[in-house]
Amino acid sequence: MPSISKQIKTPQHVAIIMDGNGRWAEQRGKHRVFGHKHGVRSLRKAIAFATEKKIQVLTVFAFSSENWRRPKQEVNMLMELFFTVLGGEVKKLHKHGIKLKIIGELTGFSARLQKKVHAAERLTENNQGLQLNVAANYGGRWDITQATKKLLKLVENGSLKSDQIDEAMMQQALTLSQIPEVDLMIRTGGEYRISNFLLWQLAYAELYFTDTLWPDFDGSCFQFALDVFSGKERRFGQTSEQVRDIR
To answer: 60 in helix, strand or coil?
Structure first.
């Protein structure tokens, strides 16, 4: 659990569900992939804004494990777009000192895309700037399940006893084990749910929902979300009086 005594007005870790690309395109009489391409521009803006505001970690939901259920043509276009963007953007990220990590079940992607992902992570792994996590073929339930399997293997080989497993150990087995828990989760597109995103890491996050579709989400929208966050009293299970005493 985050420490109340270390509360800050700017979140260390912001997570974003980038929703509304398809609807944005359809409103303009375009194919849904047109919206996804414009969504990439919004992501660039969000990365630049997060860097400017000295946010330490930005985690974005690019492709959920449930998105495979979408029409095959759209999924294929999304995979090609992901491949193209990854190849074209990683050098820019590296130039600005951004560390990239792709989280999710990567075995679900083609060998070509997996190779691209690993190369991008290797190129940026020593960078000290913004930590950018891109959740692709990711689901919060999958994350918790794979962490459980890791711990069970340790139990099976005798290096761990089941009664030794605690929350801290589970945290270390998750995909974002070395990352601060999410302070602020933003979802665009007018939906009010977290859609199986970072289920463990969102336990104490402030949740901000906006009707703005992702391609229209810019720095001013991001700043408004931060302003809302700064006005929140984060108690982490304690009372307002206890929080004020700590401060």
So the answer is: strand
Tokens of 61: 């939901």
Exposed, middle or buried, 173 (CB in 10 Å: 0-12/13-18/19+)?
A: middle
* Euclidean distance between the first and the last CA atom of the chain, given in angstroms as a whole number: 17
What positions carry a catalytic annotation?
19, 67
pTM for this prediction: 0.88
What is the Cα–Cα distance from 194 to 192, expressed in whole angstroms?
Answer: 7
Return the structure tokens found at 165: 């497993």
Query: Domains plus CATH for the chain?
Result: 9-100+110-140+185-236 (3.40.1180.10)
Q: Give the confidence band of 3 by pLDDT, cuts at 50, 70, 90.
A: very low
Q: How far apart are CA 247 and CA 243, in angstroms?
A: 6
Taking a C-beta distance cutoff of 8 angstroms, is the pair 226, 180 a contact? no
**DSSP-derived 3-state class of residue 13:** strand
